[in-house]
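Researcher: Next entry in the queue.
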Amino acid sequence: MQGIDTGRHEYRMKGWLRVFYVLFGLFLCGMGVFFARMLSQQPKVGAAALVGIAPLAIGMYLLAMALRSRLVIEGTRIEVRGAIREKSAEIGEVEGFRTIRTRNGSYWRLQLKQGRGSINIMQWFDCDEVRAWLQQLTDLDEQDRRQLLGEIEQDQELGATREQRLGRLTSAKQLNVGLSAIAVAAAVGLFAGGAQWRLPAAMVLTLVPVAVLYLLNSEPLLYALGKSRRDPRTELSIALLAAAMGLFFSSLQTHFVSPMPLLPLIVVVGLIFIAGFYMLGRKGPHTGGFHGIVLMCAGFFGFGLIAASDTLLDHGKATTYQAQVVGQHTTSGRSTTYYLDFGAWGPFSGANKVSVPYSVYQSVAPGDMVCFDVHPGALRAAWFLRVGCEEPQEMQTAP
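Model: Structure for this entry, 399 residues:
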């Protein structure tokens, strides 16, 4: 075994990255000072002062991070300095490390013993010497993986032999692929399918979270939600996200007079969704990924399910109205949305707008008449569809 290097080694943010943060920080500071000077000339500032304070604060933080950040290894001691705080520990005080992966990269988290918190080693400190120091510690991700595989190998409910038990992992992955494919197909059918497919597709998407909950609760050694990359279990997030987002984005196609009557039901469904996963999914690890997926899907699923129920289960009689186009406009972001502007009509007592496909936007002009069927809504939230004025009873897909 090689002896421990007792010398002091200091590592800083990579040069090009430090230059970028310094320049960007200076730019934000300059922007903050500019806005602050403009606002100081106004008689009443109030909350608008945040416009100047926010970029100035962010810029100062980026400058401090670029100029102060460093990692120091001195024998068995490690010290990490950030923009504001410093943390240090002896190697004997560290339980192990985990690799945390995000959309912007990955970093190491040193977990301290006795619940004393953690120390993050950011990606910009990555080098052979830092990795060599980490190799002296326990890789907690690998430790968890081996422990879980050991539990699977010994669980007699999963099979009579070790090979059969481990083979259940492969079967679980195949089942998950099938469930995810069904969820994705149902989401596509709900969003782009014909009217005859919308209700069956919505019912399938409603049942997918139930299936995910069942698998998490009945087979916690085989299935997980928001797991780490080295966790050998099957990740169920794709099926759950497809169900929740399929309902949500399909419901965005619906034009509600006002969605406010649905809000209490949306909140109730979201809370039931969260409670179900935290109660029935309690046997699995509640990682940051688990929390994020459950909370995000609760909102998507709650809105999507209630909105779909209000429209797809609505058998009330529609009332047809004519509305005159008074203008047109577009909004741009990741994509362009096309709107027709109207004055008062039907359930609207004032100016309003309706998003339409590009083909409709091109085919009408201010002064033209457009017809809508207004439906009462199964849950009492009225919604409307654009229909042909010549055949008002013929319903068309909502734009």
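Model: The longest helix spans residues 162-192.
Researcher: Noted, moving on.
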